[in-house]
Amino acid sequence: MPTISMFYGIIVRMYYVPKEHPPPHFHVYYGEHKAIIDIHTCEVIQGDLPRKQSKLVLAWAELHQEELMADWELVMNGEEPFKIKPLQ
Q1: CA–CA dist 49, 84 (Å, integer)
Q2: Could you tell me the sign of the dihedral formed by the alpha carbons of 37, 53, 70, 14, in that order?
Q3: What is the value of pTM for the model shown?
Q4: Which residues pair with 19 in a beta bridge?
Q5: CB-hemisphere CA count at 13 Å for 34?
């Protein structure tokens, strides 16, 4: 699963699994915490993160929603996603 961004100890990844698991989403890892974020709604749809990291990830997702959707299209076609600028 390619890492598309990393910031403040948070790792953002997207799976290459064409046509297999909508809605469009990405995976977030922070220490022992894992979550799946819906790209359209910028909400946690599975798992959990500490409150601070959740706020950072959701703010980042809103800022990069178009890029995340473009990466989603790439992985759904079996292509490697582009890196997305981290939150600074």
Answers
A1: 20
A2: negative
A3: 0.92
A4: none
A5: 5
Helix/strand/coil for 73 = helix
Coil, helix or strand at residue 25? strand
Q: Is 47 left (phi over 0), alpha (psi -120 to 50) or beta?
A: left
Q: Roughly how many angstroms between the first and final C-alpha of the chain, as a whole number?
A: 23
**At CA 36, angle to CA 87 and CA 63, rounded to 5?**
30
d(CA 29, CA 33): 6
What dihedral angle (degrees, nearest 10) is formed by the CA atoms of 3, 80, 61, 6?
A: 20
pLDDT tens digits for range 20-69: 677 899 999 999 999 999 999 999 999 999 999 999 999 999 999 999 99
